[in-house]
Amino acid sequence: MENKAAYSHRDPMLKKRDDFEDILEERRNSSDLRYALRCYTPVLYKNLIPCDASALKTMVLQSDQVHYVISQVSKETGRTAEDLQEEASGIVEEMAHRLQLSTVRFFAFALSKVFKTLFKSICVNEDGIQRLQQAIHEHPVVLLPSHRSYMDFLLMSLILYTYDLALPVIAAGMDFMGMKVVGEMLRMSGAFFLRRSFGGDKLYWAVFSEYVKTILKNGLAPVEFFLEGTRSRTSKSLTPKLGLLNIAMDPFLKGEVFDISLVPVSISYERILEETLYAREMLGVPKPKESTSGLFKARKILSEDYGSIHVYFGQPVSVRSLAEGRVNRCQFSLTPRHIPKRASEDVQTFVNEAAYSLVRAQEENMVLKPWVLLASILLQSEDLDRGIPLAELTEQALWLKDLCRQYGGFLHWPDQMTPSEVVSSSLTLHHGLVRVSEGKVHLALNKEAQAGPVTPEEQVLSRAVPVISCASYRNQALHVFVRPALLATAVHTAATNNKQEVYNTFSFLRNLFANEFILCPNATVQDFEEACFLLEKTGVVQLNEQEIIVTHRGHRTMGFLSRMLLPFIQGYQVVCAFLCEEASDVLTEKEFVPAVRTFLIKKLLAGTLRYPEVLSSDLQKNALAALLRLGAVRKVKRAEQTSLKVNKVTVNSLEDTLGGKLPTPRAAAARL
Amino acid sequence: MHVFRYYSTLVSSYIYPCVCVCVCVCVCVCFFFFHRQDIMKWNGWGYSDSRFLYNKKGQAEFTGKRYRLSGMIIPGLKDWMESTFGTSLQHKSSATPILNSTAVQVPTINEAFVEEIKTTGIPFSSDAEDRVFRGHGHCLHEIFALREGKIGRVPDMVVWPSCHNDVVKIVELACKNNVCLIPFGGGTSVSSALECPPEETRSIVSLDTSQMNRILWIDEKNLTAHVEAGIVGQDLERSLNESGYCTGHEPDSMEFSSLGGWVATRASGMKKNIYGNIEDLVIHIKMVTPRGVIEKSCQGPRMSTGPDIHHFILGSEGTLGVVTEVTMKIRPLPEYQKYGSVVFPNFEQGVACLREVAKRRCAPASIRLMDNEQFKFGHALKPQVSSIFTSFLDGLKTFYITKVIQRLRPQPLVCGHPVVRGDREKVLQHEKQVYDIAAKFGGLAAGEDNGQRGYMLTFVIAYLRDLGMDYYLIGESFETSVPWDRVLDVCRNVKARIIRECKDKGVQFPPLSTCRVTQTYDSGACVYFYFAFNYRGLSDPVHVYEQVEHAAREEILANGGSLSHHHGVGKLRKGWMRETVSDVGMGMLKSVKEYVDPSNIFGNRNLL
Q: Do A502 and A442 share a structural domain?
């Protein structure tokens, strides 16, 4: 009954989305200077207790929590309280934002100029802005944008400034601080800086969580952070990180505020600035350290056309209603609230599921451009070198357009243009990735090869660059197709119509790919039903009590869907093969990716692997994480290093299962 | 020597719109009459002659002669009601004026029991009016139903024992004939404790303790008094005052509530800071149970004799037996008492001040802090002043408080009002101490007379709910106790929850949702919430009301508040008992009940 409700709720046909406004349009028609200097009077939180940046620091340092942790740490380490107090104020100094309107005005001015050259348009849903404004007035707000580019948080602040909304303070990674001037400017535009890892540093944790909570409790400003924790290099949403979300929900769970609004924001780029950078990074070219000079080098980017950006402010989610019936808030009544305590199991589960549903909310409102569909089709072509005839590509794109819409994708297909115009303009925008020659469209695989004499290995890697870039565009649409695709794969793999068996395979695949795609924990049955519903609705399968039968006209869709997942399946399979065949006992975690890469290059050269995509270190890491989670691989700490202990029997059988040689293991308690 | 002090409310404070005063279960009425419905309302609060109404000129007026406010015009009330709730004099929702006896179920009589009662000579009755009067407390749903003339299950019979031995006989006969007994004191319960369980098939007999109302002795050497449990608060105080003593136990319902009821619900009085709550005041309790009489063998001030058996009785809510006699501490009357009031720039500062006062253990006899909405409400209840001069003075004061202070501090006004008692010197010293603390939190002293009036108004506000109900307003108060660090959070979240729930449930007008801190302890405080709304446009207002109240209680619990500070559990809140006292705790209580009353003779089904 409950499943049913949740799932009919998800019926994509019922999805109603707002219209967009282009905020660059006005910038092109009026003075940027006047815009940057205009009067700014945002709506503030109704119970705001105003306090400036230095008062905020004092509040944090004088808080019960920080005092408590200082005395604890002092007892444990023997350091004096004064010393620790000193350290705490050092931490606050390092972390704190210094939001200044003048800096924001500067950015507003400069970014308007830059954005106008880079982008055709920046589209924002104004209804979402209205909702956000109301939410800011009513309750403390947490903004949760998706993270695909460095631009994201400046873009967010710019939009909020444009619409006269309260400027957020933003949790940023410490790496930005290395950028001297820019780091300080970001600080003055509202960023506060977090160390990437602070492991067991209790004092750091206390100061930082108190800092975030103080801002929220007093409603000083909306707090913005990235649920995904870091930029997604693959355009797939990353599995959410829970630390900050835990902190942000804490004031509600402990009754310190009546409610908190979480606002998922979906930022979709038609063309990602860091496109090639990301692809190289995943192929093993290390990420350049953020530096101011590096940013200037990035200037050549300015001459390119990056299409449009869509920013969708989702429906604010009330933490109170999320927690209703899920968390027993009485559990916080028996210890003083300032004593840091490990979250109870129900709180952990709750925060985890909330995080997934928020990431899904981000995904759902991501705008997909026609190119995303073209990339998906191109990657499935029989031979990447030869490509697909333009007319066929167009036909397939039209077919996929309908499918995507039926599955609830937020597709922006310009209906006023003819299909071939749409396709050709997409191809033009992404001229770095695709070529059209002799009426055929193919990936620009040879672009890099012209650089000079290279080893075959290097050639393999450079050929993979456009494939991986292209895959990142396909990935934008994965969330639309992933559930039906898992089902399609399960139907193929299970090689039976029996619903229960298909479900078992589905459940197995879903579990295996839990690190790869956003699949809410404990929602296997809902996902299965949703996939069945979508496939049945589009006439791909027929369902009855016991069976799932693929219809005659359903084969095309089934084929497309299962081919979509093939690179992932092959990737996981080959990682398993590597671990069985090559991995020594002393393989360390650090060595894993380079070793797999060497292994894969060999296989690719030998022609036994079809998809260059498997070279993506993201995929390999996800596969390893999945194997660790499933217990097929264990981490063993040895001296300085962590090495990987492979359970070859389990890994081997996983490999065979993925290869279709073994039936899927019966999922425990898999009941429909 | 014994000082009492009273500060009381300042400028306004005191009143809560249409909301019932805090009331403790069971209670009784003064003077010994069987048919108390002759002078009391059968479907509303208090004395029949005392009520608020709008006179022909459309001004609010309080009738009767019993209270200081009686016969006075309250000019501000109408505007306040209209602007707060959107009420109008045109839209009236009158109550059924007289009880229609045919609406009352035919009593289920246990003939054998009646025959045997007759032989004892204890008075009894099966008259419809007597039965209906004892079949309810003062919860909103109970009064609302009565006003509509709807009568549910009521006791089948009323008996009036006049001493401990009468009770022993009645309980014996009830056990012998398997009759359900429900003790009845003052009838001021606000926890559905007096409602007859509809599933009860036996004959239900209401055991009215009102005739057991004597002070049996006063022991001046030990400062104790031995009193029959049916005595009503105001009679007890009056009689003791005549001998120069008082108990100091003054719940807001003390006009009607009884000693036995206080014991059975763990009552709390507004001056507990000096005198203590009921559990601190009792020395000895005698209770008649189906197993026999339970009492201690001596009157030692403290004993280490295993768990205190008084604590099985205190808060037992009539499920184990009838409290018949109580020995209580008494104190000499204070020489001097003084009221006062303080205005704070905001509620947070007020709470901080109360916390400081509690920390230093210098709380006056009574100290309360109300939020801004109640402050305004208090203003609305000021009676018309008699002379131009006082009117002028009042105007000046109002101007000072609302304009001058507000200009200095633009935050909302909040008022706290302490009462100090004791010998004059000490009182003044104590008063200064409290005002000094208040000053540290931005509190400004705001006068004595306002405080005094606030104290008096404590007793008349309960009448206001009846006026509200005449104009489509329903409301209620409820209380909790909460640790100091949670006070502000509970106040904020519960008020906000009430407003949100009302909106979600389709209430057409913004509700009144307000609170006050009424008691301070070393480690926490008692908080009272009042909420009321205009129910025009709702098809089932009582249901909506109950949903909101339920949600508000959930919110209290989620924020670390208790299930009840002194109203008790009754049947209204017993769904939360298990999580409140744990499974084992429930088991303990149940096993006591099973041993003491295996046949469930005391079958009101409260608590467990």
A: no
Give the domain range for residue A245: 16-364
Shared domain check, A380 and A359 = no
pLDDT of residue B542: 95
Global pTM reads: 0.89
| Any B CB within 8 A of A332 CB | yes
What mean pLDDT is predicted for residues B449-458? 69
The DSSP symbol for B124 reads E
Give the residue-averaged pLDDT of A589-609: 90
Residue A10 domain-assigned (yes or no): no
How many whole angstroms separate alpha carbon A20 and alpha carbon A126?
A: 7
What separation in angstroms does the CA of A647 have from each of A182, A253, A579, A590, B107? 48, 41, 9, 19, 79
Q: Hey, which residues 265-304 in chain A have their CB within 8 Å of chain B?
A: none
Domain count along chain A: 3
Using CA of residue A214, residue A218, residue A221, residue A222, what is the dihedral sign?
Answer: positive
Q: Tell me the shortest Cα–Cα distance from B516 to chain A, in angstroms.
A: 18
Q: Are residues A629 and A662 in the same domain?
A: yes
d(CA B222, CA B228): 18
Last residue of a domain, one of A451, A477, A503: A477
Q: Is residue A3 part of a domain?
A: no
Binding residues of B, as ranges, are 183-189, 265-268, 317-323, 465
Out of A311, A329, A364, pick the residue that ends a domain: A364
Same domain, A520 and A458: no
Residue B245 falls in the annotated catalytic set: no
Catalytic residue among B528, B530, B535, B545: B528
Tell me the C-alpha to C-alpha distance, in Å, between residue A100 and each of A113, A133, A187, B376, B607: 20, 21, 9, 40, 58
Chain B touched by A330 (CB under 8 Å): yes
* Predicted confidence band of residue B412 (pLDDT cuts 50, 70, 90): very low
Q: Which of residues 530-559 of B touch A (CB under 8 A)?
A: 557-559
Helices assigned H by DSSP within A553-614: 555-581, 589-606
ipTM at complex level: 0.86
Q: Is the dihedral of CA A267, A272, A277, A280 positive or negative?
A: positive
Check pLDDT > 90 for residue A295: no
Angstroms from A71 CA to nearest CA on chain B:
20
* A434 and A571 housed in the same domain: no
Examine the domain organization and report whether A206 and A311 are in the same domain. yes
- In a domain, residue A513? The reply is yes
